[in-house]
Amino acid sequence: MTPVRLRAARRRLFWFTYRHAVHWCSGSPTSNVIITGGDGSTLLLDSGATMTYTNKLGGYWYYDQNDPFNGAARAQSYTPPLNQSWQYGVDRIFGVNLGGWFNTEPFISPGLYEAYVNATTPAVDEWTLSVNMAADTANGGLNQLEKHYATFITEEDFAMIAGAGLNWVRIPFPYWGVAKFPGEPFLEGVAWKYFLKAIAWARKYGIRINLDLHAVPGSQNAQVFGRLFNHSGKMGTINWLYGVMGIANAQRTLDTIRVIAEFISQPQYSDVVVMFGLINEPQVGILGQDIIGHFYYQAYNIIRNITGIGNGPFISIHDGFLPDQRYTGFLSGADRIALDTHPYLCFQTLNTDGPAAQALRPCPAWGANINNTMANFGMMTAGEWSLGYTDCGLFLNGVGEGTRYEGTLTTFPSNKLGNCADVLDWPNWTATYKQGLQLFAEASSDALQNAFFWTWKIGNSSVTGRVESPHWSYRLGLEQGWMPLDPRSASGTCASQGVNSPFNGPLQSWQTGGSGAGTITPSQISLYQAWPPASLSASGGPINDAAVLPTYTPTGSLTTLPPPTLTMRSSSATINAGNGWQDPSDTASAYTPIAGCSYPDGWNAGAAATPTAACTGARRKRGEHARDLIPKAVITARP
């Protein structure tokens, strides 16, 4: 290298170091460690491997082993670093889901399910997958799920997400990642170890987390008007806040929410996990909006009693597929509640138009609703959206199910519109087709404003060796050229189509934790403060006196979530990772079965008779534990 080039190289290195605040820390007299860097810097991953960080959008990573809770990382130049507050209604959420990681779904991780598709009872949801895996000891038993946790999403994915211009991730998480009851076949607690990794990786790359409770005891959406859904753990019937075991399952869910809220509200984690989605896609049209309102008010109070007003995560509730205007005024004055919606074209009326034509649909269909809700309710996110404009995709409608596009979905008879093989042949998509998909993505993003694509990654089929639901994989779209390299390119798409109804903001102070937050309108309190609600819906008709239904008692041992185990370079450094419990005054016990009371199967209580009186319990037999009174859940044939 010539002297001139050497000086120029040194100058570039100096300015790179200055602009990105690269610091060198001495962990020992003989080693220096880089703790931050931007585009082109070398990353040391927690696996021990190295990779070159690619971020053309002004982001920089930060990780100091002696200061692991530092919030200096910045995902992109347009995203506040973690040590600065997010301005809701001003800063833009460019988000993506990490679906199928901790809460598996057949179409996201088809290889897991294909292994048992020909079993006596095929794997069609995580319940049946877990039962099949547990019996498959030759291949690792239920621990196969931990291998999935460890490999499906890694630190490299978080680095790529930041480099793709995305600044939030929504992470679906199941209740069994905290604790389960006897008889439930899920892998208990192990997902938490990997969620802690997610927090660390998100911190390193300046990404914020929306933690979404995706599956709850009894299921909030197992079946909807004859259609079976697999993403709450078990297909079949809804038993959460519905039917004979509805209250008991809701009590268990409140425990899960409380335990998670205690952990993520600790100062070591609250700058990363900044939003908490309470229940994913509850079928409110079946449950009843007034009934779930009682649950939301209970959960809200549990969380805010832990955090205090203005602190802790933003609370997100799903619209339950009701018109969003029906939530106007709900818990008005509450401290930071966001409304979540999941708009999908593929589950609406289908047509044979290509992606360029589909790109004309999102702005008029969604834009005005988002803006009106931001104005009339408060913060709104689109927690899920995709590029699916047909329902083609391996297992997209469920294992063994057909599609409406081909007229083969048995629960939804329809005429054939086309061939899925043509739609899914992504290795042979033309440049024009990919350009149409990118325009579709930009129109959707612009219409939805603060949104999370579903999902970051679709795993390969073990049969074909490739992704079989390409319209749902952000990562594949980046690699193959149909997702934008900079998500900000979406801005102005709706206006260019003649659809322009922007939210002029800002959000009101109380809606973002400022002045007035926590002072809920008295009429809303009077509507929703009763718990349990006086009545419940059920498949056999309303249960008008919910006071007679089975409940649990708060006398059990409570699970607390452990912090990560941290290793420091410096022997003089001290790190407080927290103890998993933000509020030491919160000493209530966990819900557990009442001794002497018998309970129907909490996952299959649709046919159970409504009691004539509440069970208050009796003396337990010698050596009998209260949880022994729960009937063992059994695997059943697919409904």
From TrEMBL:
<dbReference type="InterPro" id="IPR050386">
    <property type="entry name" value="Glycosyl_hydrolase_5"/>
</dbReference>
<dbReference type="InterPro" id="IPR017853">
    <property type="entry name" value="GH"/>
</dbReference>
<keyword id="KW-0735">Signal-anchor</keyword>
<dbReference type="GO" id="GO:0004338">
    <property type="term" value="F:glucan exo-1,3-beta-glucosidase activity"/>
</dbReference>
<keyword id="KW-1133">Transmembrane helix</keyword>
<comment type="function">
    <text>Glucosidase involved in the degradation of cellulosic biomass. Active on lichenan.</text>
</comment>
<comment type="similarity">
    <text>Belongs to the glycosyl hydrolase 5 (cellulase A) family.</text>
</comment>
<dbReference type="GO" id="GO:0071555">
    <property type="term" value="P:cell wall organization"/>
</dbReference>
<keyword id="KW-0378">Hydrolase</keyword>
<keyword id="KW-0812">Transmembrane</keyword>
<keyword id="KW-0472">Membrane</keyword>
<keyword id="KW-0326">Glycosidase</keyword>
<keyword id="KW-1003">Cell membrane</keyword>
<keyword id="KW-0325">Glycoprotein</keyword>
<protein>
    <recommendedName>
        <fullName>glucan 1,3-beta-glucosidase</fullName>
        <ecNumber>3.2.1.58</ecNumber>
    </recommendedName>
</protein>
<dbReference type="GO" id="GO:0009251">
    <property type="term" value="P:glucan catabolic process"/>
</dbReference>
<keyword id="KW-0961">Cell wall biogenesis/degradation</keyword>
<dbReference type="GO" id="GO:0005576">
    <property type="term" value="C:extracellular region"/>
</dbReference>
<dbReference type="GO" id="GO:0009986">
    <property type="term" value="C:cell surface"/>
</dbReference>
<dbReference type="InterPro" id="IPR001547">
    <property type="entry name" value="Glyco_hydro_5"/>
</dbReference>
<dbReference type="Pfam" id="PF00150">
    <property type="entry name" value="Cellulase"/>
</dbReference>
<dbReference type="GO" id="GO:0005886">
    <property type="term" value="C:plasma membrane"/>
</dbReference>
<feature type="domain" description="Glycoside hydrolase family 5">
    <location>
        <begin position="138"/>
        <end position="308"/>
    </location>
</feature>
